[in-house]
Amino acid sequence: MQHYLSIMILILLLPVAHAQTGAAGSTSTAINWHLSAQPLSTALQQLAEHSNTSIMFDAATVRNIQAPSLRGQYTPQEALKKLLSGSGLQAEETAPGRFSIVKATTGAMQQTLPEMTVTSAPDSDSPYSTQYKVSEATTATKTQTPIMETPMSIQVVPKSVMNDQQAITLGQSLNNVSGVFRGNANTGLVESFNIRGFHNWDYYRDGMRFQPAMTQTGYREIANLERIEVLKGPASILYGRIEPGGMVNLVPKKPQATPYYSLQQQFGSYNLFRTTLDATSSLNQDNSLLYRLNFAYNNEGSFRQFIDRNHFFVAPVLQWQISDRTQITLEMEYKTGKTQVDNGVPAIGNRPAKLPRERNLGESFARAEYEDILAGFNWSHAFNNQWEIKHRFYMQSSDQDGNAVSPTGLQADNRTLNRFYGGFRNNENDTYLTSLDLTGHINTLGIEHTLVVGGDYYNYKNTYLYLANYAFPSIDIFNPVHAGSPIPDPAENFWGNSKEEWFGFYFQDQVKLSYNVHLLAGLRYDNARAESNPTYQGVTTFTENKQDKVSPRIGVLWQPIKPISLYGNYVENLGVPAGGTGIDGLPLKAETGKQWEAGIKTELLDGRFSATLAWFHLTKNDMSTPHPDPVLAARGIAVQTGEARSKGIELDIIGELLPGWQVIANYAYTNAEVIRSNDGTRGNYLSNVPKHAGNIWSTYAFQSETLRGLKVGGGVTLRGKREGNLQNNFQMPGYAVFNLMTSYGMKVGKTRVTAQLNVNNLFNKEYFPGSAAFTNTRIVVGEPRMFLGSLRVEY
After folding, report:
1. Pairing with 327, which of 158, 274, 671, 717 sits 20 to 30 Å away (CA)?
2. Residue-level pLDDT at 58
3. For the domain that residue 607 is a member of, what is the CATH number?
């Protein structure tokens, strides 16, 4: 029985719009193949898709086998023979157009898989996929490793979940992952996240780091994302400096040979109007040149006074299969738009002020205009079936101009809010990133190794002119009278530039031992340098920070039976500079982190459903805290003896419980507090971290002929009480927000048309999802009930 649980069925009956494929399911018609060297399971999937055949194989049998490249005219049966050459496997045709992959034997008797009558949805990367579960993720290891064999907590939010929820922002999508919460920014310019108790400004795109705190222009567009992968815990070993809670990696959509075109129009409450386009196909007969184009135009108002935002986004991708073993992909993203700044509401006492949800305590002129371009390429070359080299290079350039009015504190009357004006001109950011990886598969004394040897380089530069007025008029929060125009004070303006660069080298070995034991071990060396040159009132201050560190990682996983994996890991981390100045007058070094983690993973229902239960103990060390000598502390001298700890339990489940019934759910218990400090915050909880939090979302697609095409679903996001800042002098109440959806899809000729309606915050709950950690005057106001409709046409 356990053997049959591992059988993976690939039956792809998608119409292929290429004349060279011949009749569907025909095994005698030659097809012009152009497949690169890749994992055998992927190659078999592509073969099945482009020949309209079905292929059955045991997932364990083909695991870790690399297929050779395939180029030329072959029938599906001939192509299978070529792909399986040298693998110790062979294909048997059990029925016309149906094949079983079996181990090759010399005897007359062959072991074949039992006949099964099955149907399956397209794989998770197919544009038509409705499946929630994803079996593999590359973020944790930089290799194609099944999640069940990865000794880390790695969670995936696929585009099928985002489509069902009609998610427009990363924040909405990340509600589906345990231990990930809203960050402390709500300015409209940037998104940030809290992972396992620690705030994180950075996100990664295909494993390359970007700093949204400085470079992001408006909320990150997700129209071109295939999925979002979240790696829990320190991720320095492969990706460099990052906060220890974890990393968010955005995986963009890739070009596909099978033509696909989609146009979606969304419209909703508060004048939301959003148009997206997705197109992909081949540009030549042999499928060696592929493209993908994603486009989005977003124009929306808000329940908040003064707020309206719009942006235009386009992301073309061109992929060229140069030879059997070599490919190069060119990518670009361009976005331009306008947004308003919204700093939320202040706290009165230990709770958010009771104000109308629509009230904005800023000004109507507090808006920004931006332009952002990302361009780059990646290429790979397979030397043979065992060794491959990959190289990535990206460049991002952004430019912002805008005005902001920000609160500084309530006066003693608890109604007069002090504010300051800040405007930025020619805020320019340039980022250059590159990485080079060599991946190899070797066998020593019967032990399988997957090696990754690589290095990366990161270079970031920011130049700015900041206009300020710290005596900007205050406002009565209960009876506001707005100023109406910016009033900069030239004496308070400042300008300057900052730079950051680091390079790193890393080595990783994934070892497959006897008795289904998997070992992962690696080391990374980082060398980082940061500097800044601000000029204020004619005085330029230069600071420089240099540091290097070696960080280890080790993990072990055991599968006593196929559906269960037990794992544990220990990881160290190099973070960002602590901030502050030491007694020697030099900037403090970077913070560090350490994590112990243990957990259990399970994969049930023939691999359609999975769950992960994880326990973690995570510490952030070398944090800045005032010098214990009050005289030195008064001079701004700091020491790196601060420490914060986060420990807890996380549960994530995802998959298909019954045909058509999809679910994604999570729960997190997170106890995050300061355990060492000289500023009186010892024992305080970290901000924006609920002790108890959860989310559940489920949909059901009706299977009967009379209701086929109809889908209904809904869910709830739960958050417990959270501390609003590190001083713990105000709290945000817990909340439960309920959401619903329904959709109906039907075929019109060769086109699929889907109408969908989502209702978010069904019961119009008033809630506060986050707060800025350094003040009690910037609390995020949650969105009221919102209706969101869409019409999507796919071909």
Report:
1. 158
2. 72
3. 2.40.170.20
